[in-house]
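Dear colleague,

Thank you for sharing your sequence with our group. We've completed the structure prediction you requested, and as agreed, I am returning the results in plain text so they can be pasted directly into your records. Please verify that the sequence below matches your submission; if there's any discrepancy, let me know and we will rerun it promptly.
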Amino acid sequence: MIQVSILLPTYNGAKTIARAIESVLSQTHTAWELLVIDDGSSDGTAQVVKKYVDTDSRVRYIKNERNLGIQKTLNRGLKEAKGEYIARIDDDDFWIIPYKLSAQYAYMQLHPGCVLVGTGVVVYSEDTQELFRYILPESDADIRKNILSKNCFTHATVLFSKQAAQECGGYGEGEETKHVEDYDLWLRLGTKGSMNNLPLYAVGFTLRAGSTSGKNKTEQFKKDIALTRKYKTNYPGYTRAIIRGTLRSWLYQFFHLIPKDMQESFLGWYKKNW
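Please find the predicted structure tokens below.
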């Protein structure tokens, strides 16, 4: 019986995707399927994934005929998923503890009202040096108090209810949620049940120069503010969130001007404290 469907969207991820898949294979919780959804890659991604498909029936490879973008690719994965719960991992990230899924699945079973649970993150440089680690607000009360101000979940850490996500309409596919599709979904899931983060450093996140999220930060900050306005009646702290979002967008204009080592130190402080 498949309990968890793990969505791994990829686009030209041949260089790093094996590490991501291996980290899934190492999990002590084994009642899962891994859906590798290839968004029209032109590199050797298919060849890398094939060896896992050939040796483990839980690994499924799905390829879009053309590049559809992350939003539609994730929704294709949701549609194909057979599990009760959905987990996420990206092709350049990896799960660093073997009991990540088992801890999250157990938590969901003990808390049937919970629709979304994440974990802490360890951030690495491209040469696999640890830079910093953080855990976002843990309790449902703290998440609700802060979620208008910031995204309280790192995408590659989450486990969420497939049914609740489908009832919410899945990931938004419009331009208004591009690059913030995860944050938008969490805000909608929070209207269906409780949300939590486990105090486990369970996921390795690679801080890459020129990543999609890094290249689109200014646009992302503007859309974050738009989401704050959209969901202001669902969560507290609207005024504080607008002030914080505006200040964050303004400060980011200067962020790229400081040396790289200072950027990394600031990001570590920011994730832990703001």
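Summary note from our side: The domain at 4-273 is CATH 3.90.550.10 (Spore Coat Polysaccharide Biosynthesis Protein SpsA; Chain A).

Kind regards,
the structure core
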